[in-house]
Design goal:
Strand content: 15-25%
Structural class: alpha/beta
Number of strands: 21
Largest sheet: 8 strands, mixed
Radius of gyration: 22 Å
CATH class of the largest domain: Alpha Beta
Oligomer: single chain
Length: 451
């Protein structure tokens, strides 16, 4: 039975565990864990999400819950509405970058961020107790929000880094053209609309909002060949790829070449460090799997970098504790508290636009201006004792610097390697970064041989 639950929520496969009963049980347990008040519901629009939405709405209404229903919107839009309204929490119907036959739920607290470990454990305890008792007839109210994207777009356009920089007029005068691949999901309408408001000419690719994936949805280079071709063939300035729930942003340069998903958060941090230099303490938080490019960038701006375990809630909690002005994850996720505490491709686009508006560099030149490293990401099935693997890694790299906050990361003077369990798939990930791919592959091979 393909069901995965973690601090990132629930993911399951249709026909292999994802049932109406499972959805209803999660909704019931979530309702019991959370305080009284309104719950925001949104979906990424993938096939199958509509009946899941009906299960959620029906269960919550039977419990007397008031709902704010957004329909098909990005995950960050649900987070934005949850944080900015008087809702006590929210649920996103999504399996993020997982394939077409997967769906799931992301659970938010009243601040619009993912449930922490304590709340997740309470949720799972209620779920596992299998003691579901419904009240007698209750009447509840649900509010359906018309055009929910507009409020989120307007918030992004009104960020200081956009308004005080006069970003829109600068981009309009440059006549920039962008291709967008939204994999026919929740970014299909909102991302092109935001770009047009920012002054770009937009070429739409896989933006029909049908929920039908015409390529594997994870925005990594091997899945973005059509986007690369379209950027080159239309003589566009760059391309943008969004995952199905639009919390990740990946960039293609003017030559149709992916600049690397790791550079999204580094470019975003560069924009924020530049805009706020001399005005705020420059602190950024990224996870332990993100590129060391951001440390090199921090030296340039006199900034400080802190790291957290992988998982959006882990990054957000550390950002709040150290008052970071920017944060995110190397998978293309950007978190900018000036908007809200959630990975948000719209915010990533805004910060990228700050750089584009203030530079005459092409996207490839902008990417090349960053510190240069190679990063290799692999994944393996693994059904043995993970603690034994950690001990084996320690023995393999004796006298090295270890961090075991999330799996195990081994740091060297100019490179690092990490092995960790995935929060969203039944696999382990091995990631290495160094000055050459050969060195990355060598580090990965040493660990994969231990498997």
């Amino acid at each position: 039975m393909a069901i995965i639950r973690s601090i990132s929520g629930l993911r399951a496969q249709f026909g292999s565990g994802l049932t109406p009963q499972l959805i209803c049980n999660y909704a019931y347990s979530y309702s019991k864990v959370m305080p009284s008040g309104k719950i925001v519901i949104g979906k990424d629009g993938r096939l199958g999400s509509s009946w899941i939405e009906k299960c959620l709405i029906g269960t919550f209404e039977s419990l007397g819950r008031e709902l704010i229903i957004l329909g098909m919107v990005p995950t960050p839009t649900v987070q934005f509405y949850t944080e900015k309204t008087n809702a006590i929490g929210g649920i996103v119907i999504t399996a993020s970058h997982n394939p077409q036959d997967w769906c799931g739920l992301k659970f938010l607290d009243g601040n619009g961020v993912f449930l922490n470990q304590e709340l997740n454990e309470k949720l799972w305890a209620l779920l596992d107790a299998n003691d579901f008792v419904f009240p007698e007839l209750v009447i509840s109210k649900s509010e359906v929000i018309e055009n929910p994207n507009d409020k989120h777009i307007n918030d992004v356009l009104n960020l200081d880094i956009i308004k005080k920089n006069d970003t829109i007029s600068k981009i309009t005068s440059k006549k920039k053209k962008v291709v967008v691949d939204a994999v026919n999901c929740s970014g299909s309408l909102i991302i092109p609309s935001l770009l047009e408001e920012l002054g770009y000419e937009v070429v739409r690719l896989y933006c029909d909002a049908s929920g039908v994936f015409l390529h594997t949805p994870e925005p990594i280079p091997e899945n973005l060949e059509k986007l690369s071709e379209e950027v080159y063939n239309t003589n566009s300035d760059f391309g943008l790829a969004i995952d199905p729930d639009a919390d990740r942003l990946v960039i293609i340069d003017e030559n149709g070449e992916p600049i690397g998903e790791e550079k999204t958060i580094v470019l975003a941090a560069k924009a924020v460090f530049d805009f706020y230099k001399g005005k705020k303490d420059l602190i950024a938080t990224v996870n332990l799997s993100s590129s060391r490019m951001i440390e090199d960038l921090a030296i340039e701006f006199g900034a400080k970098i802190e790291r957290s375990a992988v998982g959006e809630i882990n990054v957000v909690e550390k950002m709040k504790s150290n008052n970071s002005i920017i944060g995110g994850e190397g998978s293309g996720g950007v978190i900018f508290p000036d908007s809200h505490y959630g990975r948000d491709s719209l915010v990533g686009i805004a910060l990228l636009s700050y750089l584009v508006s203030n530079s005459e560099l092409t996207m490839s030149e902008l990417a090349d201006s960053l510190p240069s490293y190679e990063i290799v990401k692999t994944k393996f099935t693994f059904d043995k004792d993970f603690s034994d693997l950690v001990n084996s890694v320690k023995n393999e790299f004796k006298d090295s610097k270890f961090n075991t906050e999330d799996g195990i990361r081994v740091d060297f003077p100019q490179s690092w390697v990490q092995v960790r369990r995935s929060n969203t798939e039944p696999i382990i990930r091995i990631i290495a970064e160094a000055k050459s791919k050969e060195e990355c592959n060598s580090l990965i091979s040493k660990i994969s041989n231990l498997l």
